[in-house]
Every structure is written in C-alpha cells, then in structure tokens.
Design goal:
The structure is a single chain. The chain is 29% helix and 34% strand. With 110 residues, it is an alpha+beta fold. It has a single domain, classed as Aspartate Aminotransferase, domain 1. A hairpin with a 5-residue loop joins strand 3 and strand 4.
Length: 110
C-alpha cells in the first residue's frame, strides 16, 4: 500500500513554517524529519506514524485510534501508529504533528 498523498500534503502544510524540516521516503511512507530526526510520517500502512517521548507511550496508547508501532514483531517504544480515523480533522492531525515535532526538536540534531 502506498502512503496517503492527501495526508502527506496536510502534514506538509502544518510544517510549512517550521525550520529544519526535510521529507524522505522511508518504510513505504513519507517521513518528515526535523533537524535530521524522524518526527512524523504518512505511513505506507495507512494513517500516521508518530515519534513521541518514550515515557509517554503507554498513556498515549489509551487514546482512540492509537496503537503501538510494531517493527519486526516488536513494539517500538516511543513510536505510535494513529489510524486514519484519528487524524481526520485538522485539529486531530495538528495535535499529533505538534507533539512529534516538539519531541524531535528536543533531540540532538543529526
């Protein structure tokens, strides 16, 4: 499955005023990196892939349409998948994008 081009454009619009953002095709989707750190992606599996502070992972999983990101059969702490239903509105998407960008900016630039 290819990533959702409309979702990618919506993310792009939210990140337009941000500095240090680059796009990169990764994991079958389109990732948005902030200062070289992956932040958020339009996932090739549908929906959004979001990087969050690892300590927030468990509490964020309690939200609707949120599930752990699994890579090679293991949950990736600090990474979440948000189903399409969880990012339908601008407000929903903006909250996830803002959270992921804030976290990516807290990491050392690459």
């Amino acid at each position: 499955m290819a990533y959702d081009e409309v979702l990618a454009e919506r993310i792009r619009e939210l990140l337009d005023a941000e500095s240090g953002v680059e796009e990169k095709r990764m994991f079958g989707g389109l990732a948005f990196l902030v200062n070289g750190n992956m932040s958020v992606a339009a996932s090739g599996q549908g929906g959004l892939m979001v990087r969050v502070p690892p300590d927030d992972t468990e509490s964020l999983l309690e939200g609707e349409h949120v599930r752990p990101m699994v890579m090679r059969g293991r949950e990736a702490r600090g990474w979440l998948r948000v189903d399409t239903e969880g990012v339908r509105t601008k407000r929903q998407l903006e909250a996830w994008v803002r959270r992921s960008v804030t976290y990516a900016r807290s990491l050392a630039p690459k």
